[in-house]
Design a protein that fits this description.
This protein is α/β, with parallel strands linked by helices. Helix content is 41%, strand content 21%. The chain has a domain at 115-229: 3 Solenoid (UDP N-Acetylglucosamine Acyltransferase, domain 1), CATH 2.160.10. Helix 1 (3-39) runs antiparallel to helix 2 (44-72) and helix 2 runs antiparallel to helix 3 (87-105). The protein is flat and about 65 Å long.
């Protein structure tokens, strides 16, 4: 890397850390007052409960603040191909970093319900009775998930890929009554039709179409058997 590139990396990192610290600080405000009140109490059990409760308040407020910042800064980048280092890729990197902040601090405790609200607030389309145990759901405004879907723990739903010096963003569509097993990765451009089961530890390559009523598995996925007409 050249001196100019090193300088840009340092400046951009400092800017990102500064924004991150500001967001965390704002999100901690309600928790600060809860802890301050808790420390004034004499009953130890209530004091400890309120201190513990303050963490979950922080997590929920962090999700709200992240949504507000992403929307105000208009960080969601649409489908397309963008040269690495271009302005859209810088926006995308900031967007992805803010999502990782929620993942790091709180998303583990929000899986199966509250996370759906967070994903929807950032543009994901999620149907009824859908349970997303996985934390690694990226590019939320490019994700469409139908009704009665189960996405297992440690699965990854990804709307982006970097190839040949470009960031490629493409929509992922998951139909109704779909099960995606744990540790499975779904890449951008994938269409999973209704009534599909994707086995654990599978890899769904970009631009794949998984046909209705089939069980898939493997790396990369292949048809195993039809289970529903």
């Amino acid at each position: 890397m050249s001196l100019k590139e090193d300088f840009f990396t340092i400046i951009s990192s400092l800017a990102l850390y500064t924004l991150g610290a500001f967001i965390v600080g704002i999100s901690l405000i309600p928790s600060y007052f809860i802890v301050r009140y808790a420390l004034s109490l004499n009953f130890i059990l209530i004091k400890l409960f309120l201190i513990g409760f303050s963490y979950f308040v922080f997590g929920m407020f962090l999700m709200i603040v992240i949504v507000i910042f992403i929307r105000i800064l208009n960080l969601r980048v649409g489908e397309g191909e963008y040269p690495i280092g271009s302005f859209p890729t810088v926006k995308w990197l900031l967007y992805a970093s803010l999502l990782q902040m929620v993942d790091f601090f709180f998303l583990t405790f929000a899986r199966g319900g509250l996370n759906n609200l967070f994903y929807k607030a950032l543009g994901a389309k999620i149907g009824e009775n859908t349970i997303i145990i996985a934390k690694d759901v990226n590019d939320l405004h490019l994700i469409e998930i139908g009704d009665n879907v189960l996405i297992g723990d440690m699965a990854s739903i990804i709307g982006h890929v970097a190839e040949k010096g470009k960031l490629i963003l493409k929509r992922v569509k998951i139909g109704n009554n779909v099960t995606i097993g744990q540790y499975t990765t779904v890449f951008p451009g994938t269409i999973i039709e209704d009534d599909v089961i994707v086995g654990a530890n599978s890899l769904v390559p970009k631009n794949s179409i998984l046909e209705r009523g089939w069980i898939y598995g493997g790396v990369p996925v292949r048809k195993i058997k039809r289970w529903k007409e």
